[in-house]
Structure formats: structure tokens, C-alpha cells
């Protein structure tokens, strides 16, 4: 009985309230509800019947509505469903029934206390996620979701006035595809299903950027009141001339800072600037470029990201890379792909060794070496019919080496008695003639090819792998800001980790390129954006320059020849040092002789002049020494007695008998003669060649002088 009385009282009060509202609207404008004020139907239901606004709906109407919306508009992506604490506690049964009937793949969870749901959903760029939110107050959307291009469906328990207030706010403009579902405030006297009203907004209705709430349709009786597209295309007529503030940062080729104009405004150019200009013409908006304030400390990209997160700008450009941590800063739209690349110094000149060896392949050089050595043996054997003279006399090998080398220089003017120009055998002449024709052809091929190899530029070899950088011992440079300093910290590749283990950080790209061009002892490679490095390398940080194919030879082109010359100088210097010390063979002989003498028991050194045949020089020294002795008359009488019996060569006999007579007469001072002879002979003869060419005259004069004395 009490239950029926309460129902009757509830209906009576509802009827009276509607009548009072009708009278009030005739004389006064209805004020907006307060922030936490509930709809009237919810208040009366909760006060008299102790049930919430869904109690008159047996959970089927709203579930059918959400199922229809999801099937028609949300099937292209997965769905993330979130609910606040109020809905979780008051409408637990509704949520359970809704999750059982929802037709799409989804995830669900409660809204955290800080009202941020971005951390609960994968926000990577390749993930498409639509949202369904069950909240008590529609104004809480500005704390739950931020800038989103995905579709957002909000089921709220706010009044229609509250919904219109939110749709007119600035925050609702950040969610382009927004649909709000609320239950109608209209109270039905009979037991009927309360309809649900579907709202959205119209963006940028004027140049000030205002938004206008729009009622799309209503849901009642498992049908829409009128056919309407719930997620219609927005901004069909553009932004109505609205002015957007754009944060720009110098990042060629995407954004290029040109300088200031007459109005002291910074002018920009680049790929992204031109894209914005095209979009401004298509969607009817104006632009105002502002340079980010923290570029010097954070770098170009990080400064733009910070400005976006602070909400001070509408758009940001500057060659930004879409990363996982940046995806939460706002709505990103990629227009091109870029990658990290290394840039190093390369030359179009031939390498040092290829400048000389380039015209021929290594197989040709190997064949030439074999022919060269074979020619030495063939020429020697054809002339002597044996190779023993090469083994017994190593100097002949050297002579044959230069004789064969002369054929490659077309030199046939050797006049030595053993040269092939004076060969007597026809076999040798035939071999030399055929070999001469071969050398003419091969030298002509080499001469013609080396001109093309040296003068024509060579495309430098491209480094394609990290292993090549490691093998070349490159020092790696990288920017110390903009994300480059921490993007490569967690690398799984062992070679890349080793290469980037020690990095030279630079403040800007210009400093990195300067290190690349100025590297001398170690090769330097700079890691950066491929598009930016390509632009800088092609433009020379200034203007484009046409490269002519006709060019003068540089030191890089001819360094192979100088390298060969330096090798010859080093080899000649080594031979010169060896000759200064008497040659390696003679030096070893002297060391061996000295060691034998030191181990011998002989205390008086013997004079080799008395044990072997003397040379002409030794005879001259002995003769000159006799001219300075005090007993010249006595010696001459002994010499004259022994000259005639010898007969054939009186001058030679004179020298020999002179030494023998001196031996018999002054045997007690024999040890001192060796040193004195050397001293007197070196002082008397300043030019040894004069003695050798005037030998007979020199001896005759000495004989006459001795006779006169």
C-alpha cells in the first residue's frame, strides 16, 4: 500500500513541476544548471525510487544504440572503453551487460584519478584506437582526452545545457570527431522509453574560431528519429579565415630560415612551409610563423614539441620525427620518410696505387712480371748457352735487369760489349726482336689507358654497412640535441654498439660537416638526417653549383706517381748508406777479418805488397817514396844492374826491383814503410785519375829524376 502511495505522489509532483516549468518559461529565461546539478528526472528518480537515470531503461536501449554506432562507425579500429568511478559503482550491471553485447574487439578500464588515459592505451602512430567514455559530467572530457583525430563517443549524465556549453568551448575543438550521447530531460507521463539525444559540433563557424553545437538525431525505440551521418566530415568550408600561430624551427630541407623582411618578420621556406601554404589556400586560413624560444638549448625539434605541449601554438613544423614519446604531444601527420645516414669525405680521384696500377688488372701485371723474369733467363741462356755466369757473377743479373727494362722504354742504345746489340748469335737477336715488338704494344696500351684513368673522375665507393665503417676506423660525430643523443642508446646490433660506443657530439650540423672536411689523420663520419645531409651536400650551404666535366689534374690525381718517386728515393738512400759503409757484403767481410785478426797470435802485421802481385797504384806509391829517400844514388846503382836482364817490361821490372832492394837495405824499418807510403802518396797525388791516365809518363819522369840524383 505504501509503495502505491509513493508512486502516486511521484507522478503528482512530476506533473506539477512540468506545469510550473511551462509557466516559468513564458515569463523568464531558464538559467543554466550548476556544475554538479543533476537533471530533474535523475533527482526525482533517485529521491523517490532510489534508482538512477538508467532504471527506466532496461539497459537495452542504450546498449542497442552503442552497438549500432560501433558497427557502423567504429569497426575500422579497435575500441578503448573507459568509465569513471561513479559509473563503475552505480551502473555495474549495465556495464557488465554492455561488455557482453559489444560486437567489436575492445579493452576497458576505469578512468584514473588524474583523468589521464593516454598511458593506458598504446599511442604509437600505427595503432588506430577509438574511444567510448562513460562519465558523469561532460565537462570532464577536457581532462580525460586531449587532441585526438580518432572518433570519441561520450555517454554523459549531464543536462542538454551542459552539453551545449562544452561543445561551444575551445577544448571541444581539439576533438574533431566527437559524438556526445545524453538522455533527454523531457519527462514522459506514461511509461515510455526516454529518448537519447546525439550531439556534435560545427567547427570554425567564423574567423574567431568559434564552435557551434549541433543536434544530429535522437534514439528511441531502437531507431533513429532521422537519418543522419553521426561522424560527418568537418571543415567543409575551411577555417573561415582564422589565423593560426605556427612554431617553426630551421631544419633544412623541411624548414629553411631565410632571414627578416622589411617588417622585421622572419621569413621561412622549405618543404613543410610550402605544404602549409597549399593547405592555407585549400582550407581558408592565414598563418603567423613564430620562432621557438628554446631552440638554442633544446634544439629545433624539441623546442617545437615543447611549444605544442604548452598549448601556445596551433601548429608546429620543423622536420619532426614521429617517435613514441612525441606521439602524445599532439596530432601528427607524416608526409615523407627519412632515415639516419652517415656522411664522410670522398674523392673522385683514383686511389694512390690505382693511379699507377689501374690501367692493367692484377692478372696482367702478374703475367708481365713472369715475362720480365723469363726474358732475363732467355737472353742470358741464348747468348752463353749456360746460366753459370749469372750465378758466379751477381752483377750480371743487375745488368740483365736493366737491359730488359730498357725494352719497355724503347731504349736500344746500350753500347756495352755484352749487350744484345752486339750479340753474335742469331737466336739472341731473334728473341730480342720479338720481345721488342711485344714491349712496344704493351707500353702503348699502358700509356693510352693511364691518361684516361687519371684524367676522368671516378665515382667514389659508397659505404653501405657498419662493418665498413669499423674497418675504416671512422670517428663518428652526432648532434648533442634533438633526440640524436639518446635514440641510439639501446642498440641490439653488436657492430652498431661498437661503432657508436665513442661518439663526438657537436652542437649543429655545420660543425659536424666541418669536422668531416677537415679530418686529416683519422677518417670522420657524421651521423644525421639523410635528407638534411643530402640538401647541405648538394647546396654547399649556399647555392647550387654546376660541376664541369673538364677539370685540371689535382694532387690527388697524381699522388700515385709521387708515391712511386718517394719509394725510389727511399730505396736509393738505402743503397747510398750501404755504399758509404762499403756495401753490406764488404762490411761483413771486414767485420769477419777484424774478428780473425783479433783472435790471431801474430803481433807484426805483414805487408800484402810482398806476398802478391802489386797493382799500378801500389807501384806508383813505391816509386814516389824512393824519390824522397836520402840514399837515392846507392839505390839507383842497384836498380840499373837489374833492369836489363828482365827485358820485356823494364818499367815494371824497375818498380819490382826497387821494392826488393829497399827490403834488403832497410829491413829494420819495414814496419814503418806502410804508413809513410800512404801519407806521402796521399799528399803528393791530389787527383788519382791523372795518375792512371799518365802512368807511363809518370814512371819515366820518376826514373829520370832518380837517375839524376
TrEMBL record:
The chain crosses the membrane at residues 362-382, 430-454, 561-588. Residues 1-17 form the signal peptide. Belongs to the glutamate-gated ion channel (TC 1.A.10.1) family. This is Ionotropic glutamate receptor C-terminal domain-containing protein. Residues 623-634 have a biased composition (Polar residues). PANTHER family: IONOTROPIC RECEPTOR 20A-RELATED (PTHR42643), IONOTROPIC RECEPTOR 60A (PTHR42643:SF24). GO terms for molecular function: ligand-gated monoatomic ion channel activity. One of its GO terms (biological process) is detection of stimulus involved in sensory perception. Residues 362-568 form the Ionotropic glutamate receptor C-terminal domain. One of its GO terms (cellular component) is plasma membrane. The keyword Signal applies. It is found in: Cell membrane. Keywords: Cell membrane, Glycoprotein, Membrane, Receptor, Signal, Transmembrane, Transmembrane helix. Residues 598-634 are annotated as: Disordered. InterPro entries: Insect_Ionotropic_Sensory_Rcpt, Iontro_rcpt_C. Gene3D superfamilies: 1.10.287.70, Periplasmic binding protein-like II. It is a multi-pass membrane protein. Residues 598-608 have a biased composition (Low complexity).
